[in-house]
Amino acid sequence: MDYGNLVPVIGTIINISGENDCCSRMITLRTESGIVNFRIVSDTRIIDDRQLRVGFRVAAFYDGNLPVPLIFPPQYTAQIVTLLGRNEQIMLNFFDRNLTAADRSLQLNIGRGTNISTINGQSVNCNPANRMLLVYYTATTRSIPPQTSPSRVIVLC
Taking 80 as the threshold, does the pLDDT of residue 46 lie above it? Predict the structure, then answer.
């Protein structure tokens, strides 16, 4: 999968409904810009294999290169869904050897408390630099680029 094409949508789940088959669901998110529907299919990666519930704050990523129906509210097929804590932010980007995002929007300061794993939950013992990373964080500095000590980093191999 080309993770560089994934586009995040952050919102709160307000509805979960079944579809015509046993293997897919539709979740409805309330976002800052309105309602968005996401199909959850058998290929969708749910980080930590968490059961999705109404009221959860999540980030759902869809492939920005795939065609989507021109309907309202928008409907996408989720590639990755992850739960977010209160005030938690998330970024999916390529981070260089200095752990700076490709678009220079964030620099990571990995600390002892940073949980680093693969998307399937296996711990990572190597340097996460020069890789596509899914980063969970709360606060950043006001420097350019902003810096953060993330709580969690998922290495997307």
Answer: yes
Contact call for residues 69 and 40 (beta carbons, < 8 A): no
How many C-beta neighbours within 10 Å does residue 157 have? 11
Cβ contact 115:152 at 8 Å: yes
Tell me what pLDDT residue 109 has: 96
Residue type at 145 in one-letter notation: P
The DSSP output letter for 112 is T
Tokens at 134, concatenated: 């899914």
The residue whose two tokens read 């939950």 is: 121
The residue type found at 138 is T
Q: Are 47 and 53 in contact (CB under 8 A)?
A: no
Structure tokens at 125: 């013992």
| Omega before residue 145 within 30° of 0, cis | yes
